[in-house]
Amino acid sequence: MVTSNDIYTTATEFLTGQLQVSHDTVAPDATLDSLGCDSLAAVELFLHLKDKFNIHVDEGKADPSLTVAQTVALFTQEIDGTTSAP
To answer: pTM here?
Structure first.
């Protein structure tokens, strides 16, 4: 079963690897925007998480103003079934 820690770790790896964000700056309360992510990078992160975990979260929700924790929560909520079906 995929956990929020799995999603957080994968998001962090994507941000530090693909987007070359400093590992020291990635924190749950950091916004994607503060990490240098524009709208396209936010969508890329969502697509990466969707592909990695086979979880459907509408990439239209990918917003640079989201924090890393909020991003993880969107995916966790879908796993837990606490969001409405698309």
So the answer is: 0.89
